[in-house]
Amino acid sequence: MPAVAAGGLLFVSGQDPERGGRLVYRGRVGDGVTPRQARAAVGLATRNGLAAAQAALGSLARLRRCVVLTCFVDATPGALSPAVATEALALLRRILGPASRPILWLRPARGLAGGMPVEVELLLELAEPRDTA
Amino acid sequence: MGAETRLKQLGIELPSLPTPMANYVRAVRVGNLLFLSGHGPQKNGQLTFLGKVGRDLSVEEGQQAARLVGLNLLASTRGALGSLDRVKRIVKVLGMVNSADGFGDQPKVINGFSDLMVEVFGEAGRHARSAVGMAALPMGIAVEIEMIAEVADGGAPGARKAAPARKASSRRSRPARRPAARRRR
Fold it and tell me: Which regions in chain B score pLDDT beneath 50?
């Protein structure tokens, strides 16, 4: 399922850097994918995550904050950096407000579906816990 | 039909409680959420399905490994809650596949786990999920899976006894609506 609400939280499934059902980025960060492209990929996947949240809730106004931004990154040694989340964090700040900065979990991965460089999960807090009605 | 009844109907017997590999616990409950540690393909206290999917194991063997991990997670869940009937739903899963270079079918492998959850819990077994590849997993296992489950309020969801007293403020949350876009993982 794209998103599941439980315990006042919304868990969003891993999102791809895709548009219209097509992966926009393929390859490893540091080998075929530049840091700039990696930032854009994480930003795109995060945007897709927010879309999934909106579809599940009806409106993003029902979110209090993003608690965790998790970035799975397939990178060559030395190419893994928290800077990969810069665009995604800026997007979350714009959409959810400056007071809702999440913690960042940067997780090295080796092999993501379709050879994509990144996959993004969002853990969001609902504005009214236990009420998704 | 409750999950325990479904298990019996499917002829599934859960393994004995899996052994944590270090100084941690199998599951922690916080409010109505049950957080489970990463579990591996354990059988009779031994780890099986070692190696990389896409090199040492086929996708199908990876799926079998994922299914076995699922049985271990169910054993720990039953151990924590007393009965699988106390699971309201499976919420969020992280499936990790020990992957050969260039292997990109992690979602198919983890379907071995996800399909089991739907077999046992029906609609309540459908979950949010990430399926990712890893360069290595502990002890060289092929698949490791973490899971978060929601615990039913005040007793088995399938039971038809009188509902126990509830807090005035508690309300059942409606399940998340599925968007029209196709489901990929």
Answer: 155-184
Hey, is A74 helix, strand or coil? coil
- Rg of chain B, C-alpha, whole Å: 17
**Pairing state between β B42-43 and B46-47:** antiparallel
Contact B75, B177 (CB under 8 A): no
The C-alpha atoms of residue A22 and residue B29 are separated, in whole angstroms, by: 39
Closest CA to B130 of A118, A43, A24, A6: A118
Name the one residue in this structure whose structure tokens are 């983890």: B110
Pairing of strands B87-98, B128-134: parallel
Distance (Å, whole) CA A9 – CA B33:
10
Nearest to B179 by CA among A96, A61, A4: A4
Give the predicted TM-score (pTM) of the model. Answer: 0.84
Distances (CA, A) of A8 to A129, B86, B177: 4, 19, 16
CB atoms within 10 A of CB A65: 16
Contact B30/A7, CB-based, under 8 Å?
Answer: yes
Residues 64-123 of chain B with CB under 8 A from chain A are 88-89, 91-92, 97, 99-107
Q: Give the one of A12, A58, A114 whose C-beta lies nearest to B104's C-beta.
A: A114
Identity of the residue numbered B25: V
Report the share of chain A in percent with pLDDT over 70. 96
Q: Tell me how far CA of residue B13 lies from CA of A33, A45, B8, B53, B68, in angstroms.
A: 46, 39, 8, 26, 11
Per-residue pLDDT tens over the stretch B68-105? 999 999 999 999 999 999 999 999 999 999 999 999 99
For A2-59, what is each residue's pLDDT tens digit? 999 999 999 999 999 999 999 999 999 999 999 999 999 999 999 999 999 999 999 9
pLDDT value for A42 = 98
CB nearest A109 (choices: B132, B176, B181): B132
